[in-house]
Each structure stands twice: as structure tokens, then as C-alpha cells.
Design goal:
The structure is a single chain. With about 180 residues, the protein is an alpha+beta fold. Helices cover about 45% and strands about 15% of the residues. The protein starts with a strand and ends with a helix. Strand 4 and strand 5 form a beta hairpin. The strands form 2 sheets. A 3-stranded antiparallel β-sheet has the order 2-1-3. Strands 4-5 form a two-stranded antiparallel ribbon. The chain has 8 helices and 5 strands; from the N terminus they run E-H-H-H-E-H-H-E-H-H-E-E-H.
Length: about 180
């Protein structure tokens, strides 16, 4: 394994979850009931959400074949089964750290580092934590006032954004309001 790779351990459900669903049926539990029992099995008292249990135990389009070792352990404990009866461990090679050369590790409380390149609208929406339609509305409102939205640059027919200029413009807009 490459030195830049690390291993992540995940649990894969057996036979697309059939043993898990059989254990749930034998215990007389549905998805909300199993989610509630995982709270009792969790030493921290958090358990798993109904949605997560549904993803793991389900069989439709939203079903997940893999889950964390913690989730597998809580489900097995809630059903009174061994983890190996319901899941198998799988090693997944993962890159260590970020694969983006300029990204730094930051905590949630720190200011997000601005990239040194232009962003497309989807990247800007993730960066600002705003929807694509919010950005469209801001651009339309600026155009209605006869102004260009700060940081907007047209490249051919596509929009690109300078995140520094966008943030500066939003700060000025906030202080003016």
C-alpha cells in the first residue's frame, strides 16, 4: 500500500442485508424500533437515527451496503446478535489527509481558507453555504439596480466567481443595510 494511503475499516452487510432483516423480524422490530434499541445499546446514549437504520437495513435504491463499525456494532447489540452474523469487515484504502494541495486542516470555528482560483457557481454555493437559486437571485437583483454582482466574471457563457470579491461585496452589502 502506498505510503500516502491509509486504511479505513468499514462493515459490509451480508447478502444485501437479508440476515439483518431476518434478525429484525425475529426480534419483532421495525426500523424505528431498532433505531430506538440502538440508543439503549450505545454507552453514550445516542444510538442511530431511523434514517441511518433504514439505509443499512433497507433494500431499495437508498440502501447502503457499507456502514461504520460503530453502526454495525450498535445494530448487532440491539438485536442480540454477533456482528459477524450480520456484517463482514472490509478494508478500504483511503488517501491520508486531503488530496487538494492547497487545502489546510481547519476547525469549524476557524475562517474558511479562500481558494486561489475562480469558482463556478456550484463551488461558490458550497463555499458560501447558500443555494444556487440564492446566488441567481442576488445576480438578478444587482442587474435590476444596474450593477454587476461583486466577483462575477463571465467566461464565455459560463459564470465564474472570485470568492474574495464576492465576500467583500457581501460584507459591504451587510454593513450598508
Amino acid at each position: 500500500m502506498d505510503s500516502a494511503m491509509r486504511r479505513r475499516f468499514a462493515m459490509r452487510r451480508l447478502e444485501s442485508g437479508a440476515p439483518l432483516r431476518a434478525a429484525m423480524k425475529a426480534a419483532g422490530l421495525d426500523i424505528p424500533g431498532l433505531a430506538a434499541k440502538t440508543k439503549d445499546a450505545d454507552p453514550a446514549g445516542e444510538g442511530l437515527s431511523r434514517a441511518m437504520v433504514g439505509f443499512i437495513a433497507g433494500r431499495g435504491k437508498t440502501a447502503r451496503e457499507e456502514c461504520s463499525t460503530r453502526a454495525a456494532g450498535l445494530i448487532a447489540a440491539a438485536l442480540g446478535r454477533e456482528v459477524a452474523d450480520l456484517f463482514r469487515e472490509e478494508v478500504i484504502p483511503m488517501p491520508s489527509g486531503s488530496t487538494y494541495a492547497r487545502r489546510t486542516q481547519i476547525s469549524k470555528r476557524q475562517v474558511q481558507v479562500l481558494p486561489e482560483r475562480l469558482m463556478d457557481q456550484r463551488e461558490l454555493s458550497v463555499f458560501l453555504r447558500k443555494s444556487l437559486s440564492w446566488i441567481d437571485k442576488q445576480i438578478q437583483d444587482a442587474a435590476a439596480q444596474g450593477e454587476a454582482w461583486p466577483g462575477l466574471i463571465y467566461v464565455g457563457r459560463s459564470r465564474r466567481f472570485d470568492p474574495h470579491a464576492v465576500l467583500d461585496g457581501l460584507r459591504r452589502q451587510r454593513t450598508a443595510a
